[in-house]
Amino acid sequence: MNIEAMYRELCEEAGLDAGDNGFPGISLTDTFAMDERQNHLGGGVFAENTARVEQQRAAAISVILMNPPYSVGQKSANDNNQNAKYPLVDGRIADTYAKRSTATLKNGLYDSYYRALRWATDRIGERGVIGFISNSAFIDGNAADGVRLTWQDEFDEIFVFNLRGSIRGKQGDAAKKEGQNVFNIMTGVAITFLVKTGEGGGESAKIHYSDIGDYLTREEKFEILEREASVAGTEFAEISPNEAGDWINQRDQRFGTYQAIASRDPREQAVFGLSSNGLKTNRDAWCYNFDQDRLQRNIRAHVDYLNEERERAYRAIDNGADKSAEQLIRRDSTRGSWDAINLSDLRRNRVTTMDGGQWRESIYRPFIKQFVYFDESGRLNCRTSKLPRLWPTATHENLAIGVNARNGHVLAVSLLPDFHLHGDVQVFARYTWEPLETNDGTFNLDALAASENEVIVDGYRRLDNITDETLAGYRRVYSDDHISKDDIFYYVYALLHHPEYRERYAADLKKMLPRIPHCAGFADYARIGRALADLHIHYENLPAHKALQYDFTSDAPDDAYERYRIGSKKMSWNKRTAKTALKYNEYLTISGISAEANDYQIGGRSPLEWIIDRYHIKTDKASGIVNDPNDWLLKQHNPRYIADLIGSLVTLSLETQRLVSELPAFEVLDNVGSPQRTS
Fold first, then answer.
1. Which residues on adjacent β-strands are paired with residue 460?
2. What pLDDT does residue 378 have?
3. Cα dihedral 245, 246, 247, 250 in deg (nearest 10)
4. Inter-residue contact 427 to 401 (CB < 8 Å)
5. Phi, psi angles (nearest 5°) of residue 194
6. Any idea what DSSP says for residue 333?
7. Which residue intervals of 288-423 are DSSP H helices?
8. Distance CA 277, CA 482 (A)
9. Cα 158 to chain centroid, rounded
């Protein structure tokens, strides 16, 4: 596809002058920040550069073509590559894109490519065309709703050609449908034209959208681009956005009327009083391991590294070094990782200690346990969120629903969950824990007033996390005073598994956390939800599927730990058996696996696919740290642990599907218990 030709075509249609050269040759290095710099280039210090920038500022620009840089920020503080600040452009973003966004976290709106687009929009004035090839997240991303709403007001025509290819956060068929990327990246790509004709009359922009299609290879996508070659040659559908700014996959307006699963607004009566993200370490190789002894050695080495570099930097400063401590440290990924809080401690010359950390068992990925260093101080964990109130210590039990914030997939957990458990996970726990003593050492009088029926463990009082208002509402709607908060918890878990709920509100679940309607058949939902949670929490104890066969080669070692040893090579399916036989290692093949076991998926993978993905010896490229699942077998005193787990997860998959099939027909009630029209 000839982008310049498409520009000429759009300019001609819009009655704009594309110029003799098709479009002005503008360097974003100069223009992106020229408004920021104009007061700093005076005085003739950089006369030639000043003249060039001022000439560009004075030029009438009607067409801007760009491939704006995509960089929300450094991947970690180790990159030492923080985004520059542009107060004027960022102020414009704050007044437009961010102001109209409903997202909680809006940092991504200050990404370089949004900055470039904000500048370009203001630069072309009342008439012009902006064209760009970029990350496609703006098309359907929740944080970009303010961008879409702003563009609808600021432009008259919008053309979007979605090249797909986004595999970040997707697995299985969802990733395959995206097809190969036209570039060697994990984020989707789109070609976009934003047109100002000056004749819109205040009406919202006409939006023309084209999707390149599912399951396409890179070569097939290039062939389509070459064949269509122009805006006129591309078949666009005109789409009508809704009030929320959805262009595609528009949410169901009824969804927003249901009860929120949790809410930051204290005025909104949500099901759960408190929610939390899963644990985000920003240095998983250091903070997780199958071997607790190895994990402890890694953390000690990491802490030593942070302190040694801090001490070395300040010795250099004391000896007259004309640099900041941050400039003087040596970043060595084989010794440790620098996050924002570590750099803050460095600037304050603050010692890093291990006093605030705990060694725990955690649920790292679905059905994959590892040891974790849980650091409430945040020195070696990036974000602990509200987890210390859900699992303050390893002795405090809890049960929670982990919801993928991108698609609504759910998994019940009883251990501290990772943020990327099966996507970007939000946690909704049955209980919270409140300390009996406050931070200043005085007694928490409210907690001490606990009744004799309440649970107190190791200085903490257990509190219900399902609100009293929710309990009263369910009892009223279902006319049943025997409904308990446990029943509501399991009702929610079952509902979030319901195929019709997930299909009907798929677009909504991509953009917001689940909302919970009252449905007919509460007792059945609660019963099935309890069975599902028990299945998913106690997965290790399930009997192996009876049809499984464990076939060893004739040269398999007699030592059990060697026979069941996991190597650095991943397990693999026997390609001739349609995922019914799994090559465990060089000695063992497990066959007789039901093909239907792969139909139950969590986060885009079946339970067995999670096992394949995670149970192998892995050496982290950056740190050189080895994570060996054979250490977990030794910890469990069971060489067959993973082999047995495979059999248990076949049972789990089949049982999950059976239970889900028994859910009542999806029928939403109104607030007085009557069926609503849902078609």
1. 435, 457
2. 87
3. -150
4. yes
5. -110, 120
6. T
7. 292-318, 325-328, 340-347, 387-390
8. 32
9. 28
Residue 526 in tokens = 């609660």
Look at residue 577 in the predicted model and tell me its pLDDT: 85
**Closest CA relative to residue 520, chosen from 495, 553, 550:** 495
Which residue shows structure tokens 């993978």? 605
Length of the chain as a residue count: 679
Q: How far apart are CA 164 and CA 167, in angstroms?
A: 9
- Letter for the amino acid at 256? G
Instruction: Pinpoint the alpha helices (H) of 124-262.
Output: 145-154, 172-178, 218-228
Q: In what order do the strands lie in the sheet with 288-289?
A: 288-289, 368-375, 357-365, 416-417
As given in the structure block, the two tokens for residue 40 are 């700093």
Contact 145, 102 (CB under 8 A): yes
Cα separation of 549 and 446, whole Å? 57
Q: Is residue 104 over pLDDT 70?
A: yes
Taken in order 11, 15, 20, 23, the sign of the CA dihedral is: negative
Instruction: Return the residue matching tokens 């996970």.
Output: 425
- Mean pLDDT, residues 234-263 taken together: 92
- The CA-atom distances, in angstroms, between 71 and each of 84, 107, 130, 187, 526 are 11, 11, 20, 12, 45
Q: Cα angle at 427 between 148 and 397, to 5 degrees?
A: 175
pTM exceeds 0.85, yes or no: no
CA 253 – CA 296 distance, rounded (Å): 50
Strands (E), 518-574: 549-552, 572-573
H helix or E strand, kind and range, residue 463: strand 460-464
CB burial class (10 A; 0-12, 13-18, 19+) of residue 474? buried
Residue range 75-89: mean pLDDT, rounded: 62
Other beta carbons within 10 Å of 137: 21
Closest alpha carbon to 336 in 612, 622, 91, 11: 622
Q: Which of 132, 131, 83 is nearest to 109 (CA)?
A: 83
